[in-house]
Automatic annotation (TrEMBL):
Taxonomic path: Bacteria, Pseudomonadati, Bacteroidota, Bacteroidia, Bacteroidales
Positions of the UniProt region annotated as Phosphopantothenate--cysteine ligase: 11-221
Free-text function comment from the UniProt entry: Catalyzes two steps in the biosynthesis of coenzyme A. In the first step cysteine is conjugated to 4'-phosphopantothenate to form 4-phosphopantothenoylcysteine, in the latter compound is decarboxylated to form 4'-phosphopantotheine. Catalyzes two sequential steps in the biosynthesis of coenzyme A. In the first step cysteine is conjugated to 4'-phosphopantothenate to form 4-phosphopantothenoylcysteine. In the second step the latter compound is decarboxylated to form 4'-phosphopantotheine.
Gene name linked to the record: coaBC
MF (Gene Ontology): FMN binding; metal ion binding; phosphopantothenate--cysteine ligase activity; phosphopantothenoylcysteine decarboxylase activity
UniProt: CTP binding residues: 99, 109, 145, 159, 163
Protein known as: Coenzyme A biosynthesis bifunctional protein CoaBC
Pathway: Cofactor biosynthesis; coenzyme A biosynthesis; CoA from (R)-pantothenate: step 2/5; Cofactor biosynthesis; coenzyme A biosynthesis; CoA from (R)-pantothenate: step 3/5
Species this protein is from: Porphyromonas catoniae ATCC 51270
GO cellular component, one term: phosphopantothenoylcysteine decarboxylase complex
Amino acid sequence: STEQDYQGKHVLLTAGPTHEPIDPVRFIGNHSTGKMGIALANEFARRGAEVTLILGPSSLRPREEVKVLPVMTAEEMLRVAEDNIGEADIAIFAAAVADYRPLHSSDEKLKREEKGDLQLELVRNPDIAATLGSWKRPNQYFVGFALESNAGFEEAKRKMAQKNLNAIVLNSLLDKGAGFSYETNKVTLFDREGGIEAYELKSKEAVARDIVDFIARRIAL
Ligand code: C5P
């Protein structure tokens, strides 16, 4: 379709993994590809929104109307998100942020010890969604993701409240074909008003349409 229902809206998204350096050649990271967040960025842009995508290390890129701000670490992602959240009407937190980072990262490649093991001290990374959520203005609409290994309804709702999000997208890891490195996803959407919508397994592009439609109904576009 050619509907331009998001014309005039600013959308900020985080997507992809973060890489937390151990030394110049090693990092702590995860298998996120950024595909779901990029599909969302594309769908908002297609429908007329002004879209900024804060993207962790990923080989994928969105369509060219989307402004990409590449980042490496969680701390960088937070800084760039803080700088850009002011003008956002809608924010989507789709990044798979590393929960921890090495306390020290070496400027030189670490050498293997002759014998024995290496201990890494890890510190907690900032929660980007929760940090920005705590400053959310009443006219801003924030959406997060929850990836749970069980049904996860209660956990998803708890995260929505704790991060002050308006809505949350639950991916159950129990569903075959859903989540990291798959082309497909199966989601349930919850909002603060008690709304619940469960969808079938579909392509990430089709899931992005469902999520963008869900938000359009909530913000009454
Ligand atoms: O707490 P949990 O990691 O399960 O929450 C997932 C949601 O929080 C996602 O929307 C994710 O992008 C966001 N998040 C974040 N910063 C973190 C951890 C998670 O923005 N450090």
